[in-house]
UniProtKB/TrEMBL annotation:
Coiled coil: none annotated. This is DUF2089 family protein. It comes from the Bacteria. Residues 9-37, 42-86 form the DUF2089 domain.
Length: 92
C-alpha cells in the first residue's frame, strides 16, 4: 500500500508542516519545523496533471488529446494551477 503524505490537518483543515526527519540507515533524526515543498501541497489530481504535462513534454495539444478535452479547457486548467502555485509560494 502506497500511503500519501497528509498535507491538511484532519481536525482543523490547516496546512501541516514536517516536524522531524529520520534516517533508517544511521538512525539520525533531525527535528525542527519544515515547510512542505509546493508540489507536495498540491492535491493529487493537480499533481497528476503536472506529471502528465511533463510526460507530454509540456505540450497542451497532447494533453488535450490525452484528457479528451479541448485545448482551451486544458489551458485554463494549467492557468488555474499556475495561480494556485503562485499563491502557495506566497503563503510560505
Amino acid at each position: 500500500m502506497n500511503k500519501k503524505l497528509p498535507i491538511i490537518c484532519p481536525s482543523c483543515s490547516s496546512g501541516l508542516k514536517v516536524k522531524s526527519l529520520h534516517c533508517d540507515s544511521c538512525e539520525t533524526t533531525i527535528t525542527g519545523q519544515f515547510n512542505l515543498p509546493v508540489l507536495l501541497r498540491l492535491e493529487k489530481t493537480e499533481l497528476d496533471f503536472v506529471l502528465d504535462f511533463i510526460r507530454c513534454s509540456g505540450s497542451l495539444k497532447i494533453m488535450a488529446s490525452k484528457l479528451n478535452l479541448s485545448y482551451p479547457t486544458v489551458r485554463n486548467m494549467l492557468d488555474d494551477l499556475i495561480n494556485k502555485i503562485d499563491k502557495l509560494e506566497q503563503d510560505v
